[in-house]
Queue: 4 jobs
Job 1
Amino acid sequence: MEKKVKLFLDSGAFSAWSIKKTQAEFDKLKLENKEQYKLDERDGLYHMNIDIQKYIAHIKEFEKYLDHYAVLDVIYDPVKTLENQKIMEAAGLHPIPCFHYGEDDKYLQDYLDNYDYIGLGGMVPVSTANLRVWLDHLFGDLICDSDGMPKVKIHGFGMTVVDLMIRYPWGSCDSSSWVLTGRFGAVLVPKFRNGKYDYLKSPWRIIISNRSPKKLRAGQHFDTFSPMEKEVILNYFNSHGFVIGRSEYRKEDRKTYMLNKGERWEDRDTVETVIEPGLSNTNTKRDELNIIYFLDLEDHMPEWPWRFKRKT
């Protein structure tokens, strides 16, 4: 197949670490399932474990398709993460190392001295305010030179907080927020200023789904926006070829009624018939528009590398 996109393989370490069980839950597992978990003495929980040799074998099988791949990091354990980096390098691989929130700066400094592409991780559970303090320090004191230019390329694992994406000269970022936003019934729309959409400001997160509660404060559900704001939002939808969509609803007895094609249960006793697929009634439409938002945001970002100026 012709290769049309750049591929960055993540190890899945954060997802695995997030799957955890107590001692009682672990004891109930079958023997073969227990082998998938490892006890973390720091919190006393069993976390799902990824076999580094299987990860290495997977990379080698598909390496010709990959532009980049990450180290098998161990969340909040910089010593083990560095050990895995060396194991993978000894196997002939060149993984991107990863430095996590809260770890000693000496590990990042070591990566800065020896690598030209570094990942920052462990940021998902951290508040935006605390991340801003941490990232100001990293980019201001370590990653960038005296003129504010990044000395290496930085990847942000789980980083799509738009304010923070714009604030720092990332080489690349990733997260699942584009799809989670759509699944929770919302779309991202850039703010409109001086007659044009401003992608370098935090966007509106507009709930558009018919299934979302309508009794929300102003600026949450589409129905709560002012007529002028609605016009701006609708123009954005239309400019990318999207419509809100239209559905009809009626009451039926869930115990006896069989759904027809194009129907689904809205709630316990209400059937929704999709008349016109759109953002309000089709989650894949919301996914598509959110992908377009991030692609447009990328086009409006400065070309890397660009200067970081520490802000008060």
Job 2
Amino acid sequence: MIKPIESEKNYLCSRFFTMRNSTLLIVISLFFWNCTKENSLVFSDEKYEKISELGDGEQNSKVTIAIPLAIAENIVSDSINTTIRTFIENVIYLNDTPNNFSSYEELAASFIDSYEELKKEYPDEVEWEADVKGKITFQSEKLLNIKLEYYVFAGGAHGYFGVKSFFFDPKTGKQLTPEELFSDIEGLTLLAESKFRDKFKIDKNKNINSQGFMFEDDVFYLPENIFVTDNGILLVYNTYEIASYADGIQELHIPFTEVKPFFKLDIN
């Protein structure tokens, strides 16, 4: 066997370590790429629909649920999906007996079953409707905001409708409160009141309810639902929150240039 000369040995060793280091870097890169891929939040637009077989064929009772669904199989996605589903259950499920549905198909079927049971007993019962739509209004490394719009009619004078805002930490799936999102709630409230008065032409020297609004104790406050968008925040007051059913939902938009100082999180 011919032994390699010293320079050849050095060359071969250099090649070996270079190849080994390159392989190690590739393995490490693939590992972190897979971790990032598994932990990244990817959503799929899903739609669930159930239509009653009872009716005149033109306007049968119907349930429609169209929402973004986190598709990764991890605790973050499970937490987000469970929070959304629990809220939708509370909106659509009509029976008093608690029930944890394993799927949206079961939830939709429950709504239609309740209608058909009543329809068989009272043939004049009008058609019911449940409609829930969801969308992502904002998504970054530090904040995810999902918006749900819902309308449910199950007989009576009229249905009920509204919107719901969900803030999530994209890294943990934990639901965030406005206090965790904003650093100065009091300052944000003062800014929002000024904007609200400008929009609805309420003089600063008059009571906030002087134009027919129904703020409790005649004191302005932020709504239960705040949405983050690409160009600012949207304050949404649901029906009965500060106005009558006939007046509907009240909205107020504040651009990022004015509201950015109040954010606790760097969401850029």
Job 3
Amino acid sequence: MVRFSVVIPAFNEEKYLPRLLDSIETARARYAGGRASIEVIVADNASSDATAEVAAARGCRVARVQKRVIAAARNGGARAAQGEILAFVDADTVRIHPDTFDVIDALISTGRFVGGSTGVEPERWSAGLRVTWAVFLPVVWLTKLDTGVVFCRRGDFEAVGGYDESRPVAEDVAFLLALRRLGRRRGQRLVRARRVKAVASTRKFDQFGEWHYLGMMPRFALQFLLGRPGAREMLDRYWYRPTR
């Protein structure tokens, strides 16, 4: 029986995917429930490189998703999943923690949590990264909304309707908020599995600059809220047409 389905949305990630898959394989081997109870699904979001071939060669199941929206890729992978627990992780993640599956399984098995996330730490530090982290960390503490490996029961994923495909960005935040609402009705809450943080890629900081997040994100939010044409161009350049 499949206990975990790891869903990896991916667009042109042939360069970064192998290192993530290596770390998932290590965590599968460490899992007390057995390696075979964890499947890995790469949701290939209309890649033009060898992402699908790399995934298939590593023994992953490949779900083809043509709609170029990150939420659609996550949902497409989830539709192909057979596991009781869904775990979503971005393809450029450097690595997940070796104990990820044991810790998530223990948390879900208590029945106290509707889902949650592991959180992340960056693959490197700089002054800009430290300040960015310091600005956003209190928001994470207060809301319990985090990134890294995001997990929940498959039934609860279906109950909230999965990821909102009308959202080109922030679909992950909306999803966790929907899970929180579902959990509150049952006396459950979101959890941050901080002991098994994933290591996040800093390639956006490499490409756009060490301080870009503090300047670019407020400008994008304002343009997006005002419906300015520049918001779409910025969105595409940052999330959907990045230089690989």
Job 4
Amino acid sequence: MALEVNIDTGAWCGDKELVLSFPDNWDVSVYESRDSKALNESEIEKAFAEPIGAERIELLARGKKSAVIIVDDLSRPTPADLVIPHIINELKEGGIREESIRFVIGGGAHRPLTKEEMAKKVGQAIASKHEIYNHNVFSKTLEKLGDLEDGTPVHINEIVAHSDLRIAIGGVIPHVSAGFGGGGKIVVPGIAGYDTIAHNHGKYKGRPRGSVERQGQEKDMRDNADDVARYVSLDFMVNIALTKKREIAGLFVGDVLESHRQGVAFAKEIYDTAITKEEIEATDIVFINAYPQDYDPVQVVKSMWPVNVFKNAQKVMINPASDGIKYHGMSDKVDYDTFLKMEAEKEEPTDIPKKGEIKSKEGFVLLSSNFPKDEFYKRYPDGALFENWEDLIGQLETLHDEAKVAVIPYSPIQLPHIVQ
């Protein structure tokens, strides 16, 4: 009888369960994080009533005529819809009329969201009542606020710049060059212009994934993003740490820096994943599930940490890449409309394998129904892309008669803790 392991997949597209069926003679271990229970409504209300290092939103709203709420896009698993009604209520209690509350999708250099995608992020009821705008890093109407002392040119979204009150929502999830998401990252790259993002990414070193402090004395990308957030007067930050089911495990709201630091400390605890050195060395195959950051194909790198931990194991990733569009303005260096025209005019590659074929135990393997094949084989010429679990596991079984297997069930929000 086959051994079965259930994992979650398809963030923003049903968040459904996928059953992985393994040969019964394989030794399969599932490495879970500590995780946490989801907050209830009263606990969410308590967080907003007792903000960290800032006045509550209702007080900040008094005397103001307009407010903007910045949210990340679907490349991030942040369940913004669960907290937005609380923010709206406080803004209204503070005297801001509902029609004067607008939203900006702070997707940095990512593609714009459709109306349907916006509703997924903010909630259908909110989307039907409020104006929602996509940020565009290439927009000619961005507001130039000035320069930081280090020379950072501060260009930000014009709607954010012209709003009386600025509130942002972000996910405290591990990030490969900023330590963690959330905090000032919703400003840079979230609602910043191309020049501001290029300066941040080009001048400063990254902060290792899961790191709280910078490495060394010099400021890094995270510090610069936080400095810009202060400069543009981000009034209130909502940081969300996630459960493995993409619920709210921890809510840290208030001052952009203080609330984020507390959120990161909590996230490090619940994302902690213990793995013994002995188990790592014995593992033949590691299955890496990209949930809950498995919507945007560009984000595949956010799930890759097991590659460096299980160095001698065959690497297999499960990532539906539901969006199916691999676009990033900073690397493509064109706006999204231009990108789509270029894609439409591009000749279809003729050397793409029709079926996935695992040629060796070293090749990277991906199970995905939507990841662009040409992009996959361009990046992993010795890899194998499968759309069907049965075909994938059948080929692996021919390479591994018996196997010690590790399953990482929600890689983007797990932090490895190697036990000797």
